[in-house]
Protein: ABC transporter ATP-binding protein
Amino acid sequence: MSSGVAVSCEGLVHIYRAEDTEVVALAGIDLQVAAGESVALLGPSGAGKSTLLSILAGVLRPSAGRLRIGAHAVESMSPAQLQRMRAAEVGVVLQGASRNLLPYLTAYDNVRFAQRAAPRGAELDAPEEVLDLLGLESFAREKFQVLTPGQRQRLAVAVAVAHSPGLLLADEPTSQLDHDAREEVLDALAQVNAVRGTTVVAVTHDPEVSERVRRTVTIRDGRVGAEGRSGEEFAVVGRGGSLTLPLDVVAALPPGTLVRVRLQGDGSVLLEPTGEGS
Ligand SMILES: Nc1ncnc2c1ncn2[C@@H]1O[C@H](COP(=O)(O)OP(=O)(O)OP(=O)(O)O)[C@@H](O)[C@H]1O
Structure:
């Protein structure tokens, strides 16, 4: 049995540097995920979702900003400390089941192999229990080739949670699966979240994932552009009062438009374009 860890991102910036260019992939992400919460990260291609996931996984180091994963202040950790944190606290499902699994091992041995990376003395569920959690107990002796695509992906989740991490990160966990297999995988993630209390953060383009997860976070241009709660989209007030407007509003307000912002008596806020621009 494990329990979830909280994640806190404050002003996270990530810049990829090549010889003569810089790409600002994350431009100040503010995001709080409570322990045991389940969140889907959405957003257009190139918005910065994978970069954020890699930083949460401890694979990439943020260029600036603060990141807390449970009790760890990640931005100031040494590579060895990061490695230990990942081994103890973070499970990752990479895109494509085969990238997570050793095809010549059985389902049972894949889980057992993954547990070898856990810190010494860690309290781990037996491989049978991990497979049971993912509904794979009757496939323990099967190898990758005979499993269906949905079972393979469930096994990838089993391998990611084999060391009982408090945070499970999944990159496009339902991509290239048919409807039934997608349901299987979403059930598996929900099961890990419900039974173990594991915090789950999944990057996805799949509208079914967003429908199944109560909270969605849309990344736009390296920032949190919007949040969804039970299917309804909201703009998010950022630090210093910044607000990313919905795309249909942006289309009506070209950059540089001067807008009167008035707080109304009933607590609502009126945005009134003046017709003037800078
Ligand atoms: N290794 C890299 N070197 C330089 N630039 C990169 C690198 N990886 C990503 N980028 C750039 O950083 C930005 C964010 O990329 P990222 O892959 O995080 O976006 P994404 O939202 O995950 O996109 P997708 O949905 O297509 O995977 C993009 O402009 C991308 O071109």
Summary: The chain has a mean pLDDT of 92.
